C-alpha cells in the first residue's frame, strides 16, 4: 500500500493548523484469524491478508492495523504474546509477514 502523499503533512487547515496524517488517515483493523483463509484450514492467515491488499487499498484505506499474530500460547486470543520474533504457526511465517 502506498503511504499518504508527501504533501499530506504540509497541508494546513482553514485556520492554519497543520494536518496530521494519523488524524486524516483511514485505518482498517484486521483480525488475522477470521479475515481470509488461504490454505483451507479454516483459520485466516497472512497470505490471505496479502491476497486482499489491492482490494483493501481500493476501499480508500491508508493504514492496516493487524491484531496480534505473533507466537502465543493463545490463552488470551493471541494478546498473550510469547515471542515478538515469531509468527503464530497457524497464521504463517515471518517471511509471509515481510511479503505483506
Give, in order, the helices and strands.
Answer: HEHHHEEEH
In DSSP terms (H or I, runs of 4 or more residues), the helix count works out at: 5
Strand segment count: 4
Kindly report how far apart the N and C termini lie: 9 Å
Task: Walk me through this protein's architecture.
The chain has 100 residues and is of the alpha+beta class. The chain is built from 5 helices and 4 strands, in the order αβαααβββα. The strands form 2 sheets. It has a two-stranded parallel sheet with strand order 1-2. It is elongated, with a radius of gyration of 17 Å.
Please describe the topology of this protein.
Elements (H helix, E strand, L loop, with lengths): L20 H4 L2 E4 L1 H4 L10 H6 L1 H6 L4 E4 L3 E2 L11 E5 L6 H5 L2
Parallel strand pairs: 1-2
Antiparallel strand pairs: 3-4
